[in-house]
Amino acid sequence: MMFWDDLFAKQKFVVGLSPMDGVTDAPMRFMCAKYSGDDLGVMFTEFVSVDALAHIHEPHKVEQVMKALLRAREESFRCPYEVAQVFGHNPELFYSAAVLVATLGFDGIDINMGCPAHNVEDLGSGAGLIRTPDVAQAIVRATKKGIQDWATGKVSVSDLDYSVEVKSWVEKHTRVSPLQIIPVSVKTRIGVDKNQVAEWIPAIMEVSPAVLTLHGRTLVQLYQGKADWNAIGEAARVVHQMGGKILGNGDVLSRIEAQEKILQYGVDGVLIGRAAEGNPLFAKTIKSKPSKEQRLAWILEHALVYQQLFVETSEPEYMERAFIPLRKHLAWYATGFAGASQLRQRLVQCKNIEEVEASFRD
């Protein structure tokens, strides 16, 4: 049974962590899994370019790209299901990426058909795929075929045209697990410049993604304006008529709001994005705000996990640079208490874990 079936059977209100580029890396997912616990059903990685996977070979660039596919799973607490998200526009490269993702032991693979960034959609990737339903369908079919061939032993990462460096990274990070079919899901938007649910959703559902996640904005809206949950509700009816499952996404700030959206619009669950930044309790129903002491403890714990996963594994000349992406996460935690603004200013300048610890004493 696919994990999605198990998840929907166990949880009445499915709440997940939405994929966010440059945000939902392994340390963040670790924190959300640990503190949201059983209330968090599924987590998505940052998106990874299938083209980048196919063409990188320099060790440092391989590490930069592949770190998005590090697992957050921890044996000391229950970890939600983890799904790797990929993007691109070449079906053949999705076939290879599916084999790679399955080999790494992810519970599922998600195809990004919703990124509105111009350098992505202009190439026909991300939300640009809404313009080419036939290509979008071919991508889903190719991804499923890659997983099928991998699960039946017809192909492995060693058979693919990846660089030696990528294959070495995959071998190093592969979790020993039986070959099994993992589900293919899709995350997309309601249209390009208007609501296209009536045409776009049936087209993508024809290839039967295990789950469809729908962000309630068009491509041209980017992240501006309000998410159109009426359009998501319209899509939910189409998806259910075609025998599928749907998650809604957009402007949901808490578990309580997620439950309201599930009941009001008929979706099967909700993914939460920006509200999870600096808030690893986002999937829980919390009546009181975290204390200053709790927030400081999160800052240090997150920094330590990040240090172990990303900084200590970097080549010496890149170690200081490797710390930079962490700064925004630390700053997100520093809010809601006296002196938070001053602490944020110090945190966004930290170059290492020692400076993070020192920032508390200043």
Compile the SSE list and pairings.
Elements (H helix, E strand, L loop, with lengths): L2 H8 L3 E4 L8 H11 L5 E8 H6 L3 H8 L14 E7 L3 H13 L4 E6 L4 H4 L11 H19 L12 H10 L10 E8 L5 H9 L6 E7 L10 H13 L4 E4 L5 H11 L3 E4 L19 H20 L7 H4 L4 H7 L6 H8 L5 H9 L1
Parallel strand pairs: 1-2, 1-8, 2-3, 3-4, 4-5, 5-6, 6-7, 7-8
Features:
2 domains, globular, single chain, eight-stranded parallel barrel, 16 helices, TIM Barrel, alpha/beta, 362 residues
Describe the structure.
With 362 residues, this protein is α/β, with parallel strands linked by helices. It has 2 domains: 3-276, Aldolase class I (TIM Barrel), CATH 3.20.20.70; 292-361, no CATH class. Helices cover 44% and strands 13% of the residues. It is built from 16 helices and 8 strands. An 8-stranded parallel β-barrel has the order 1-2-3-4-5-6-7-8, surrounded by 7 helices. Helix 2 (26-36) links the parallel strand 1 (14-17) and strand 2. Helix 9 (197-205) runs parallel beside helix 10 (229-241).
